[in-house]
């Protein structure tokens, strides 16, 4: 497999509303140093694909309003590889657009698609699995998704039911998918954990460009027609104008519903590289360094007394003193202070005035 046919697509158009007030519509979480390590989640995503492909084969799909921020954070990527959506339309149109755009440039492309706001602990194992799956999809007409071996009965993730009865002859780490499952309730998630053939759905996909384009033609013909019609303008000054015109016509649908749940040749690679979808303050607390009392402190000067199991994210304050909290979020950004029980964090959208 020629390394120069590998492409990485980073989806970076989300608004990260559950991380308010740190994440706002104007400056969402993928552009923020959430972990306090000196790199944003978008930059960490870019970093972990080092060696998978060259920087000129890395693509970012984002909203128009974030284009300049992507350019600033990832100067290594050519400007023409940053594709901008005029409106939010979920993951299927986003993936269709970038797939046809890459196909116009490299008909033999082999693609990995990843969200921009995940956390991975073991980058070496991550890259090993990605390269193994890319080799598999370059030799077959298969779609592969990464399934994460579950460590707890998590209700915040979708699940993949795998057929562990027979590994693929080409790759013993890859198995057929029986079905995709929605986010379960706690009893269902507990059952999934016991049955041992369920994996967390990471939302990371690997396929050849011909496989995914053909899948769109079969299962989303109207969407395929839109992006097929733009083949003459990809890479030209007229591309953005046409995308702005036609993109809003696409259905607002996820790639899971549009393709994954319908396609035939769907495989999963069970993975264990310290993965988390950093979707909530609670998931962040699970991933960052904690003190002896279970507190995660992200900021320059934070002092805690009689406080346990609390996440404090106050990177703009000179001194923060917290006393007597157990199981709380304390977050400050641009003059907004949130103090909320971790058990009530699903109400954060309500607190910030969202429906």
How is this structure best described in words?
- With 355 residues, the protein is of the alpha/beta class.
- It has eleven helices and 17 strands.
- It has helices spanning 41-48, 67-73, 91-105, 123-139, 186-195, 209-219, 221-229, 239-246, 255-260, 281-287, 348-351, and strands at residues 6-11, 58-63, 82-85, 110-115, 118-120, 143-148, 159-168, 171-181, 198-208, 266-271, 275-277, 296-298, 302-305, 311-313, 320-323, 328-333, 336-341.
- Strand 7 (159-168) and strand 8 (171-181) form a beta hairpin.
Would you report the number of β strands?
17
Q: Evaluate the radius of gyration.
A: 21 Å
Terminal-residue CA separation: 48 Å
Class by SSE composition: alpha/beta
- What's the rounded overall pLDDT mean? 92
Strand content: 25-35%
Largest sheet: 5 strands, mixed, barrel
Task: Describe the structure using short key phrases.
globular, 5-stranded mixed beta barrel, 28% strand, alpha/beta, 4-stranded mixed beta sheet, 355 residues
Concise structural overview:
The chain is α/β, with parallel strands linked by helices. The chain is built from eleven helices and 17 strands.
Write the layout of secondary structure elements.
Blueprint: E1 6-11, H1 41-48, E2 58-63, H2 67-73, E3 82-85, H3 91-105, E4 110-115, E5 118-120, H4 123-139, E6 143-148, E7 159-168, E8 171-181, H5 186-195, E9 198-208, H6 209-219, H7 221-229, H8 239-246, H9 255-260, E10 266-271, E11 275-277, H10 281-287, E12 296-298, E13 302-305, E14 311-313, E15 320-323, E16 328-333, E17 336-341, H11 348-351
Parallel strand pairs: 1-2, 1-4, 2-3, 6-10, 12-14, 13-15, 14-16
Antiparallel strand pairs: 4-9, 5-11, 6-9, 7-8, 7-9, 8-10, 16-17
